[in-house]
Amino acid sequence: ARQVVVSGAASGIGRELTGQLRARGDEVTGIDLRDAEVCADLGSPTGRREAVEEVARTTGGVVDAVVACAGVSGTTQGTVAVNYFGATELLRGLRPALMAASLPRAAVVGSISGTQPNSPDIIDACLAGDETAALAAAATVAERGEGRKLYPSSKAALARWLRSVCVTDEWAGAGIPLNAVAPGVVRTPMSAAHSLTPEQQKVMDEAVPMPLGGHSEAGTIAAALRWLISPENSQVTGQVLYVDGGAEATLRGPEV
Ligand code: NAI
């Protein structure tokens, strides 16, 4: 059985992925704030360290795949801490355990929001690996009343991090494909938490147009993640796979 680590395993996409993997015989170590094998706060450096140490203990130091699903959609600093540093630092911390596996794979969950208006200051600080500066930049942006830019910034930074590290010695050189799945709107507790007025709903539908059958189920996103982390995927790396009902294709148009 493959040993898979899934963050955000207690809800939504992470929970669905965990169920699908277990149904196919994989062993999953879930990480979440609660209701998981490893309970830790990926929004803090201490919590991330605890998570990595605990995973090493429970898996014996060999991990076949890691999927960083945990995320939040708020308009405060924590969104950058969890979505960017919670994902990248978890993957970095578990890389030694991945290298101990024969066919290691890794994936993160991005978002179509990563293509929407963002804050370059936040993104630059993230990519520099400077969490203090990134959170300070996020606080400044939020104080300006532009807190809605934090989520897109965290996901754009995640996609750029992926591109910058995927073909280095640490990842491709170590035989580890590293990809992202970027959903549009997925029916999960996260999206349900935003109770929208009909007008807000209309703005949302225009921002994330999904001509191919509307909003996604969590299981659809999980299935794409499953393939990316399977042994079958030996050649795809550094890609942001939009599993978004056509949102990215609609927004970007026919140019490739
Ligand atoms: P969800 O809210 O159902 O699940 C997220 C999970 O992450 C929860 O179990 C939560 O406890 C966990 N989590 C949050 N903060 C954490 C922390 N500090 N430490 C450890 N665990 C933490 O959300 P959903 O929809 O399943 O989201 C999963 C991923 O998909 C996120 O990265 C999200 O940004 C992304 N996404 C979701 C979309 C949607 O429409 N639902 C659209 C695009 C991307």
From TrEMBL:
Pfam families, sorted: adh_short_C2
GO terms of molecular function: oxidoreductase activity
UniProt keyword annotations, A-Z: Oxidoreductase
Segments traversing the membrane: none
InterPro entries: NAD(P)-bd_dom_sf, Sc_DH/Rdtase_CS, SDR_fam
Family the entry assigns: Belongs to the short-chain dehydrogenases/reductases (SDR) family.
Annotated protein name in UniProt: Short-chain dehydrogenase
Organism: Streptomyces oceani
